[in-house]
Give the backbone structure.
Amino acid sequence: MALALAASILFAVANLFPILTLSLQGKHAEATLLGAVLELQKQGMGMMAGLVLFTTIVVPAMELSGLLYVLLPLRLGKLLPGQTAVFRLIHSLRPWGMIEVLMLGILVSLVKLAHMANVHPGWSLWLFGAFIFVMAATAASLDSEEIWTRLGRHYPSALQPNSAARYLTCHVCGLLSYELTNKAVQHCPRCGSHLHIRKPNSIGRCWSLLIAAFILYIPANVLPVMSTSSIVGAQVDTIMSGVVYLWVSGSWPLALLVFFASVMVPLLKLMALTLLLVTVQKRSRWRPLDRARLYRLTEMVGRWSMVDIFVVTMLVALVDVRPLAAVQAGPGAIAFGAVVVLTMVAAMSFDPRLIWDSLQDNVHTR
């Protein structure tokens, strides 16, 4: 609770100050996180602005307020209405909080701007850095099992099995229950989540999201993600041209990092999910443990592809010193953001338990 309170203070104060400040031939500009979102909205990039707002402001704020709503009463020995639903929501939102990815995007932005202007980190940059470490400490110290146990005191400890009951594991709180054959829809007795032998229509939903991501991957890499106008001319950048610029300017570690996160990770994620879906549908017994590890890796790294979206966001907000220079987001950024979201949701839709079904004749899916 103490760490969650500290993180809340850091997050609130960090949103009040500029992240970066820029000076160019006597003109000055500064970028706050909310200001960057509003600038995207002004440029007609409402979908991109909503995505940045959701992943960097809304989700962290909801996660922190939810943690305090759950932990503070429990620390005082009390239960409040809706705490179980709130803690369940925190579990669902956690993959969408991307302050760490934002910090990487800010670092890339600093390198890109170093040649054209004087750029200085603001107070907000250091506060967000401290926020990341405090949130990591909060997650490390939080015992979810203990929280679920305390919140679930008014629930029965377990469901009683019948003669041929199968086990159901809650994907939110991890409680093991027994299947009730007389119920079409069954809920976890501790956290209230829906329980399924397998995620309903997992393969169909995953294929639909994956095909959409494959289609959008092409314009995401071909169309410009941003355009820069200045007194010396105009320049249009795609994702790959940005990688080339970082490499040519001598920042090859960042170039490799951005290339891997923005080009290779989405492509490898698409290929990995395709492999998983095909092998599951063919009921393949090929290396199930390795495929399960591949799924976990795919689900874990997908969010880091958002780095280019945050680079564009920072540059749009900061480089607005007309008539000297200005940056505008391009249509490729919208397509790329859609690819990231679609692949993340596709990975969440896939049920990794399907990998093992071909090895167990007594398990059926539905």
